Amino acid sequence: MKRQPVRVLDRAVDILEYLEKATKETSLVELAGSLGLDKTTTYRLLSSLCDRQLVFKDPETRRYRLGAKLLELGSATARQWDVRRVAAPFLQRLRDACQETVGLYVRLGNSRVCIEKFEGLYEVRRALTVGRVQPLYPGAPGKVFLAYMPREEARSILASIHPIRFERGDWSDLGQAIGELDLVVAQGYAVAVEELFPNAATIACPIFDHTGHVAAVASLATITSRWSAQREAELAKMLRETAREISAACGYYSGDDKPVASLM
User: Fold this and answer.
1) Do 21 and 79 lie in a common domain?
2) 88-107 tens-digit pLDDT
3) Is 260 a domain residue?
4) What pLDDT digit, counting tens, does each position of 31-68 carry?
5) Which end of the chain is more exposed for a tag (fewer CB within 10 A), N or C?
6) Nearest Cα to 219, choosing from 234, 201, 194, 199?
7) What backbone torsions phi and psi does residue 191 show, to the nearest 5 degrees?
8) CB of 140 within 8 A of CB of 204?
9) Mean of the per-residue pLDDT values of the chain
10) 191 and 215 housed in the same domain
C-alpha cells in the first residue's frame, strides 16, 4: 500500500510524457490503450492533471493536450538554470577569496534546494549537497527567501511550521521570527548560527533578476570555530558584493539593496 502513491505518480508522468511526444490532441481511449491502463484510471489521472492545469481538455473535441501550467514550470526551470550558469564564476571566485563553502539556492514551494556549490578550501569545512531540499526556516538562505516575499505570505509559511525547531531548541515566538525577516531586508543579508546543524554558521544574500524579484540566494557556510563578529562582517561584505554583481549580470539594477518591487 505504501508504494501506491508512487505508482500513481509514475502513471501521471507517463501521461505527460506521452502527450509531450504526441503530434496532435489525444483521446481518452488512445491514452488508455497506449499506456496499458483502464479507462477509469486514465480518466481519474487526467482529471487531476487538468485540475492542476498540467493537461488541457478541449471542451468541444474532448481530447487532451499539455496544459499551460507546464509553460510556467518550464520558464521557471529555465530561469533557475540560467541564474546558475550566470552565478557560477562569481561564486567560484568568492570561494577562492574567502576559502569558505559557497552555495546557490532556489525556492521550491515552501522549501529551498541547493543547485550549485563550491566547497571550501579549509581542511575542516562545511559540506553542501546539490539537490538537497531543506525548509525555508530555519537557515540563512531560507530566511532571505522569506524576507523578500510579501509579509502575509511569509507569515503564513512560518505559521504552518510553528513552533520553529532549531538544532538547539525551539523558536516559539512567531513575532520574533517576523522581526528577524525585517532585519534581513534592512541589512541585506541573513545569518544563521547552529540553527540546522551544530558547529555551523551561514550568511546568505539575495540575487535579484531583471524584474527585481529574488531569483536565487547565495550563501557562505563556515564552522563556528572560525566565526566571530569580525568574520561575519568580512564575509557579509564579500557575499553582498558578489550577490550584487550576479544580480547585475542577471539584468537587475537598483541604487541600493532594496528590490524593485516593494514587498514590505
Assistant:
1) no
2) 999 999 999 999 999 999 99
3) no
4) 999 999 999 999 999 999 999 889 999 988 999 999 88
5) N
6) 201
7) -130, 140
8) yes
9) 85
10) yes
Query: Are the C-beta atoms of residues 22 and 60 closer than 8 Å to each other?
Result: no
Q: Output the CA torsion 203→207→213→214 (10° steps).
A: -40
Range of the domain at 193: 74-249
Considering just the CA atoms, what is the radius of gyration of the chain in Å?
Answer: 22
- Furthest C-alpha separation in the chain: 68
pLDDT band at 151 (very low <50, low <70, confident <90, very high): confident
Grid cell, residue 39, equals 479507462
Q: Tell me the C-alpha distance between 236 and 229, whole Å.
A: 10
Q: Say how many domains are in the chain.
A: 2
The pLDDT assigned to 30 comes to: 92
Fill in the amino acid letter for 107: R
pTM: 0.66
- Cα of 34 vs its chain's centroid, Å: 36
Q: Which residue is listed with cell 491502463?
A: 37
